[in-house]
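Entry:
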Amino acid sequence: MVEVVEGLNGIREELRELRALYKGLLERPIAIEDPTEEERKAMEERHEVATEGELLKALGGSSIHR
C-alpha cells in the first residue's frame, strides 16, 4: 500500500511540473509575421488535392491495400 501512495505522490509531483511548464509556454509571446508575397500567393491559389497513394509514394511508403 505504501508503494502505491509513493507512486501516486510521484505522479502528482510530475503533473505539477508539467502544469508549470505548460503555463510558462502559454505565457510566452508568439511572434506573428505577415506572410511573404510568395506565401500569400500559395495560400490564395487553387491547387489539386493529392490522393492517399500519391502522398504515400511521395513520402517513400507503399500504398495501402484494403
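The two ends are 49 Å apart (CA to CA).
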